[in-house]
């Protein structure tokens, strides 16, 4: 129920957070016009260089709002990335049956549905990629008839889509036997979501469960598979239950560091905390084409793991990464100041706190905080009493005090700060 409530709540606010265009596309393959719905992310105009994954919705006339609602809700909490959605209207004149018609003997697309297949692969995708800023990561989704039809894109040697969301598919003849073999031989990373419900036709539900049983035996590391059977859902309400799980399955790697990830994968490391963070964002970029600055919350999670394990030297590498992602902010100086403070080198810690004071605030790091930290650490400097007596003695005592606070910003030799940071 929580999935259903979240989707309904987000759908209620769709008009406030998205841009939806209706396009009448003149298709040579379909020999006529087809109505398309294009939903652009809220940040699309504000960030003219950013690119977004692409989601193609068959049955876009009724699947657009549920998918869009989930994505709006997820992106609000930074759990799901923003996505360009293109919905295909198939509601007019029994169009979906024509688009997805199959040969009764072979179970393969017939003449009209071959044209529809070509429309998506040869006309629609190139059009969207030309007119909008998309990444190479593409998702396709459908319900019952269209959910079954979208599987035919997997029959190609080089599948057009990276992720497939099949909501209660009406499987054509032999598909539950043929498709597991195709999924088992996938050479590239592939996401596949499948669902059914007690409210489905019993014969079709049995075939879907049989299909699932065969996929479960696949050992292909390239296949990321998820199946759900909803006990208290109808053929139609399962759509609202399925969509959040499907999207979170696909974009799990792109989510912020969670408490579970921190406790099971990060703080348990003996070393390499900063490398873990770099690898996480490399995966996001390589998998989905999403290139964003590292989240501040993820920086803080790695910092917490470093401090908990007392591996203070790693804060140097974290500072370099901070300067790369937020070059005008005080984050990099804060990490170095923290490193020197933890290692007991308070004079150097003060210098970096004060250096950060002159830069832009970020998240919970403020100028007041940086200044207060510096002033607090200054009180810890050992003060030598002034020696009364001869001038030479007095000068010598002063010189000793000065040497306690080195004039150079270069760190101690046991923990070298990189050339990039010193500059």
UniProtKB/TrEMBL annotation:
<dbReference type="GO" id="GO:0016787">
    <property type="term" value="F:hydrolase activity"/>
</dbReference>
<dbReference type="InterPro" id="IPR050583">
    <property type="entry name" value="Mycobacterial_A85_antigen"/>
</dbReference>
<feature type="signal peptide">
    <location>
        <begin position="1"/>
        <end position="18"/>
    </location>
</feature>
<feature type="compositionally biased region" description="Basic and acidic residues">
    <location>
        <begin position="391"/>
        <end position="401"/>
    </location>
</feature>
<keyword id="KW-0732">Signal</keyword>
<feature type="region of interest" description="Disordered">
    <location>
        <begin position="385"/>
        <end position="423"/>
    </location>
</feature>
<protein>
    <submittedName>
        <fullName>Alpha/beta hydrolase</fullName>
    </submittedName>
</protein>
<keyword id="KW-0378">Hydrolase</keyword>
<dbReference type="Pfam" id="PF00756">
    <property type="entry name" value="Esterase"/>
</dbReference>
<dbReference type="InterPro" id="IPR000801">
    <property type="entry name" value="Esterase-like"/>
</dbReference>
